[in-house]
Design brief:
Luciferase_dom, Aspartate Aminotransferase, domain 1, Luciferase domain-containing protein, 6-stranded antiparallel sheet, 3 helices
């Protein structure tokens, strides 16, 4: 079980399902970039063109043979996460269903209407960056088989 604080304020406007993205309360670009730098520094991850999102999303993959994450820990192929372009700043992650439920309940994101991922809202300020980063780390742990 996560100990997620409730996300303050109303939820941002979301549209989709294709693309599924955040329309309001856009994360400041500097926070998006700091999050991305942390994401791409995770061990064994590599960046490649997305297999599921808009062409200019930045996606992360884990090579075959690294970790033992279940098939549900990947969006397509070995892609486990992507962050949307600067005009949006949200990201799609894979998490086990109970954790997706907690993310939704605390107001940090919504499930994708057609895929088995969760849209996590972009961080609006530094405290939110830390919460989103914790969710990214859980998604990574799921992909490498360290989270059931």
């Amino acid at each position: 079980m996560l100990d997620l604080p409730s996300r303050p304020g109303p939820a941002p406007e979301v549209y989709g399902p294709a693309p599924h993205a955040q329309r309001s309360q856009t994360a400041p670009v500097m926070l998006q970039e700091e999050l991305w730098e942390r994401m791409r520094a995770l061990p064994f991850t590599y960046m490649a063109p997305t297999l599921v999102s808009v062409s200019h999303a930045r996606s992360l993959f884990i090579p075959e043979g690294i970790g033992a994450g279940p098939a549900a820990a990947f969006q397509r192929g070995r892609e486990w996460a992507h962050i949307h372009p600067h005009h949006d700043g949200s990201l799609h992650l894979t998490l086990p269903d109970p954790l997706k439920d907690e993310v939704e309940k605390a107001g940090w994101g919504v499930r994708h209407p057609e895929q088995d991922t969760i849209l996590v809202y972009g961080p609006r300020e530094r405290g939110e960056l830390e919460v989103v980063w914790a969710l990214v780390q859980l998604s990574y742990a799921y992909a490498v088989g360290e989270l059931g």
